Amino acid sequence: MQETRSARADEATARVPALDIAAGRVPSLPHSQPPEPRPLPHQLSLHPPVGDLTISEDGGTIVAIDWGWVAQQAETTLMVEARRQLHDYFDGKRHHFDLALAPSGTTYQCRVWQALCDIPPGSTRTYADIARTVGGSPRSVGGANGRNPIPIVIPCHRVVATGGIGGYSGGDGLPTKRFLLALEGAGTADTDLLAPLGAV
């Protein structure tokens, strides 16, 4: 019986291709090459009143706006146009953006972000309002808001809590949110939300 097991083991071993590791030669295996590195997105920064912002473009679309300044700047046609539209926004000349956007997120997050874009400038909606539109709960809407990769252009600052201003993770937090709402004229209907605006 032992000889039979040994013969089977030898037979199984014989089916495995030998690797000449001692000589440093390993046969190339399928899919063993690492994928080509993806090019970094183009980035362009600007100095608006809410602090430095950096726009990121990838594949001809805006994929992110982050607070902060980057050293490597790229003035592509789209980036220059995005910067111009943001300057117009902060100068009070526009409240809508006409840019190709490609935020990366789950299907649910993208539904929330689309609902944010449907909120008119100068208006606000509650987390519960958005949840009634796209499904989920106020908490899940808040989670999607917090992961919005293109703030200001996708206006997550227009979503507030039922009994107050809610949260905001961009810039200086709530002072930045109040500044953006006041810039859009939301103070007409939401004076209580904007009372501490002088803190900006």
Instruction: Write the CATH fold name of one domain.
Output: Arc Repressor Mutant, subunit A
- Characterize the quaternary organization of these chains: single chain
Low-confidence stretches: 2-29, 194-200
Name the helix and strand elements from N-terminus to C-terminus, one letter apiece.
Answer: HEEEHHEHHEHH
Fourth CATH level, the homologous superfamily of one domain: Winged helix-like DNA-binding domain superfamily/Winged helix DNA-binding domain
Number of helices: 7
Strand-pairing-aware structural class: alpha+beta
Percentage of helical residues?
25-40%
Largest sheet: 3 strands, antiparallel
Radius of gyration: 26 Å
Query: Can you count the beta strands?
Result: 5
Separation, N- and C-terminal Cα atoms: 85 Å
Instruction: Give the strand order of the largest sheet, numbering strands 1, 2, ... along the chain.
Output: 1-2-3
Strand content: 5-15%
- Specify the CATH class of one domain: Mainly Alpha
Mean pLDDT: 82
Question: What is the level-2 CATH architecture name of one domain?
Answer: Orthogonal Bundle
Shape: globular
Architecture overview:
- Helix 4 crosses helix 5 (138-146).
- With 200 residues, the protein is α+β, with helices and mostly antiparallel strands.
- Strands 1-2-3 form a 3-stranded antiparallel beta sheet, with helices on one face. Strands 4-5 form a two-stranded parallel sheet.
- The longest helix has 14 residues, at 2-15.
- Among the domains are: 42-90, no CATH class; 107-193, Winged helix-like DNA-binding domain superfamily/Winged helix DNA-binding domain (Arc Repressor Mutant, subunit A, Orthogonal Bundle).
- Helix content is 35%, strand content 11%.
- The termini are far apart.
